[in-house]
Amino acid sequence: MKSNSRVEATDGRTRVGGRRDRIGSDRVGFGFGFERTTTGAMAAVTTADEACAAMERAREVGLEVAEKFMRAVLADAATAEAYARAVGCEKGCAAFFEAPLGAVETLTRVVEMSTTAGAAVEKRIGAIAARSRSVGAEACEAAIGCGLRAEDARAFGETCAATTGDGDAFGVVVSVGLPCSTNVVRFGRVEKGELIVDARAVDPAAPSIWAMTPKSTPEAPTKETQWLYCTDRGSGRAEKMPHFKWTGDLRPAMISHDERTFRGLLTVPKDVVRTDYAETSYPKSEAESRLQQVMYELNDREKEQLRKCCVVSRGALDAVVRAIRPGVVPDELDRICHNYITQHGGYPSPLNYYGFPKSCCISVNEVICHGIPDARPLEKGDIVNIDVTAYIFGYHGDLNETVLVGKPEDVDEKSKHLLKVALECLWRGIDSVKPGARYRDIGDIVTGHAVRNNCSVVKTYCGHGINTLFHCAPNVPHYSNNKAVGSMKKGHSFTIEPMINLGDWRDTTWPDGWTAVTKDGSRSAQYEHTMVCTDDGVDVLTARLPTSPAVFPFVSETEENTVDYLTGRLADASI
After folding, report:
1. Of 114, 115, 288, 365, which is the most buried if we count CB atoms within 10 A?
2. What is the DSSP string of 41-108?
3. What tens digit of pLDDT does each residue of 105-130 get?
4. What's the rounded Cα separation, in Å, for the pair 179 and 335?
5. pTM of this structure
């Protein structure tokens, strides 16, 4: 989101004022600020399309390899019995195996060759059994991710229940890690020595919490990865926590710093098209673009490119959310986001943007926005916002969601109320979008609903225009009586992202120069979508997908709800 500037009208044209509003080139094309050549843009699109297609093929291969792996490892009764005995599967617990796609393919070939060569059973499955573990149905989220559909959790539970404990039958779960940091999961069971592969699959799933254990920690850093406190808006590092009058219980933790890479940042594949600030940290094309003052109207072709970008952004957010569980470290969640976007051919927009040191923002409890992923493990009862933006196909796509850590019963009722109100505020704002509507009126709508529900609206940060630029006109404040300029037109692309607090609306910033927290230490929640104004309303480009994890604690798959299970959209406008 943009830092909110007081915006004033200049003349009859659609313009906005702002802290970084300087007029740049008047050239309009396709790319950074619509100023790149069409040839270069199409080459970038082709590369990204190829990367996305490769990830889709990897997903399909992963599902096939998981089944092939089970058939190789559990090829006969003697091997299956030895494997179950080595893993130590008790009644109600399945054998769980997880490895990256390449490793599963290699192990499958090794097992097949050793079987053909007549190797001893223990030798064939010894290494695999050592990497396996016995899991019960209660470990479902720890093993394959949170926010699962009921049918996925049911498949996992039934596989665990297949283990009788007397050696006659046991269940098997195989989780294959893809290059984009999502997993695919297949199920099977062995009955009297015969393998039965379940047709059901979890796709996509998350890496297990065991696979997400950091190799380097602040307590035990490796030579390559050090841990330091972030300072100076991301450009500085310190060994000691800075002094500050903290407003709540949360404290900054150290962030990972790779000694082998540029500025300690996560690496981006060479064939990925980067933003102009990827190395300089200064978004020159954005800061000097005329689109800071003039609202651009996307044509149909440009809108579809932005939609493709937003699908990748949505996939990255969903991948991170599935991996959120107690004990998981935000720094590892950031890696998931980074890998998902870059393996699909995109660049994580926050990375090195004005020096921001990570690939997404992770904001916990009283953090309003711009939280830097660090080494503090998530705890039961936390609320955490994940803010993701991908730059791909020549466009930026921005969205965020706030989720609970742990089960709904682990989180206090005020926090769950806060999440519900924040989501309702977002959709009330979205429902007001149509040609001719004034941007300033969104603030009145959002604030009215928040205040009626005993919450407040942050005024320092606002929604923003988004297209080939990360942030541009219009400014979209979420507080009432604002002075935002301009009315919506078909083709305007922008975000709505109200930040809602349980207490006072005021904020302050930590010494790292990025992390915005509530002034009184109360909790804050936020949801965001990227959208385009259409002829008769709005097209939400970052909309949730059928595979998106369930993140609304006030929504049930089976009970009648006032909020739609899939989209989070209000079903009852009178709420």
Report:
1. 365
2. HHHHHHHHHHHHHHHHHHHHHHHHHHHHHHHHHTSSHHHHHHHHHHHTPPTTEEEEEEEEHHHHHHHH
3. 999 999 999 999 999 998 999 999 99
4. 12
5. 0.92
